[in-house]
Specification:
Helices cover 37% and strands 14% of the residues. By secondary structure, it is α+β, with helices and mostly antiparallel strands. The mean pLDDT is 85.
C-alpha cells in the first residue's frame, strides 16, 4: 500500500525539482522581457545592463555595444513578480565570460553594483523550447526517486524520451 502522507524526508527530489523549475522560469522571464525591447533585434547591442535595484516596480535597461559604449535605454515595469528580471547565470556576463572594456561606460555602471549585465549573445542563442524540454526531463528525474520510494511507480521505460534534437538510444 502507498503511504499518501509520507514525511518530508521522503520527498528529497521535490526541493531539487522546485529549484530546477525556478531557474527555468527565471531564464524564460528574462528572455520574454528582453524580447519586448528593441535590443534583441539590434545587432549593435552586445550587452544590456539591468538595474533592478534602484526601484522595485521597474527595471532600467541600458544597452551597450562591443566597446562598452551606451547605445540605447529602456524601462521595463515589473509590477508583478512574473515580470522581474532577476539574475540568471546562463545570461550573466560574469558566467559567460563576456569581456568588458576597462574604463568603459559599461564597466563604470557595473562598478556601481546596482544590477547585472546580460550577455546578448547568450540570450540570442537561448532556445526556450529546448530549455522547456530539458527542464521537464530534469524535473521528472528529480521526482523519480521519490516516486519509487513511495511505491507510486515500480518500473518505467524511458523510450520516447528523446526529443527531435537527440538521437534515439539503440
Amino acid at each position: 500500500m502507498v503511504n499518501l502522507h509520507p514525511t518530508s524526508d521522503e520527498f528529497r527530489g521535490f526541493d531539487e525539482a522546485r529549484s530546477i523549475m525556478w531557474c527555468h522560469e527565471a531564464r524564460a522571464r528574462v528572455h520574454r522581457q528582453l524580447n519586448f525591447t528593441p535590443f534583441v533585434s539590434n545587432p549593435a547591442v552586445r550587452s544590456v545592463h539591468v538595474d533592478n535595484v534602484t526601484r522595485a516596480d521597474r527595471a532600467f535597461l541600458t544597452a551597450f555595444d562591443d566597446q562598452g559604449k551606451r547605445v540605447d535605454a529602456d524601462t521595463v515595469f515589473t509590477d508583478d513578480a512574473s515580470q522581474r528580471i532577476d539574475v540568471t547565470p546562463e545570461f550573466d556576463h560574469d558566467f559567460t565570460s563576456m569581456p568588458v572594456a576597462p574604463g568603459s561606460q559599461l564597466a563604470d555602471l557595473l562598478a556601481e553594483e546596482k544590477g547585472w549585465a546580460i550577455d546578448m549573445r547568450a540570450l540570442r542563442s537561448y532556445d526556450l523550447d529546448a530549455d522547456r524540454r530539458a527542464t521537464q526531463r530534469a524535473v521528472f528525474l528529480a521526482h523519480l526517486g521519490d516516486m519509487m520510494a513511495t511505491g507510486q511507480i515500480q518500473g518505467f521505460l524511458l523510450d520516447g524520451m528523446s526529443g527531435p534534437d537527440e538521437p534515439d538510444a539503440a
